[in-house]
Amino acid sequence: MIMTQKEMLFIVQSQLAIDLNCSIDDLNGEKDSIIFVEAKQNPGCRPYPRKARYFEILSMGKSIVVSATPERLLIAKTHMQGKNRDTVFSLPFIRGLYLHFLPDVERIKPMTPPKLFSFELIKREEVFSLFDGTRFNEAIIFDRNLPWQTDLVMLAKQNGEIVGVAGASKTCAKMWQISEEVLPEYRNFGLASYLVNRLTFEILGRGEIPSYDCISSHIASQRVAHRVGYYPAWVTDWRVNFEGLES
Fold it and tell me: Which residue in 11, 8, 16 sits closest to 46, CA to CA?
């Protein structure tokens, strides 16, 4: 049975609170309020790489949470306190916002497969036997040194050739991250939406949570999320540039 929207949001916010070293209440604070917290690698946090100097900003629509190591936290406070949302997210050291989508469980439905294609679900152990790392690297993780890998892949084939993929990586106990890529000549056939939809229901059927992520400038990817039945749940940036601001 697919979890409710409320259950899903609680699990997601619980994980984000662990990752950012904040509380669920911080994520749901008053509109445009800014909560500053010192970053900490808590047990259970998702295994994204962190350097000695770390910064992440996140908003789920109301409050803004800034999690950073001490020097960057002080810089953030200096530049952000007393500012409105638009000013905060337009500061020079913010480089590019990522949008994170969650499925709307009351709206999302299984999609009809596009004609003229066949589809197949494969698991992690089959990925490296099918791909050489030169194609579909926007959807599949080929770096074996990373602490997470692509665990599920939905393939689209035509005449036996792989023409599109959606890959999902399990990044923590309950959450998966989905990406997709379709060869240019096979776009506009509905493949990206269908692949993401199939993978979404595969994950939901396991009682777990898929998220679909893309950079804010990638309009085509956002359209895929909307067509499938996802909604924008939070925005982040961690690829910041503090050059000239740090000692």
Answer: 16
Bridge partner list, 180 = 166
Bridge-based pairing of strands 175-182 and 209-215 is parallel
pTM: 0.94
Tens-digit pLDDT profile for residues 112-158: 999 999 999 999 889 888 887 778 988 999 888 888 899 999 999 99
Angle (CA) 222-33-240 rounded to 5° is: 55
Q: What are phi and psi of 62, to 5 degrees?
A: -115, -90
**How far apart are the C-alpha atoms of 187 and 87, rounded to whole Å?**
37
CB 223 within 8 A of CB 142: no
- Between strands 64-68 and 34-38, the pairing is parallel
Q: Which residues of 151-186 are buried (b: 16+ CB within 10 A; e: fewer)?
A: bbbbbbeeeeebbbbbbbbbbbebbbbbbbbbbeeb
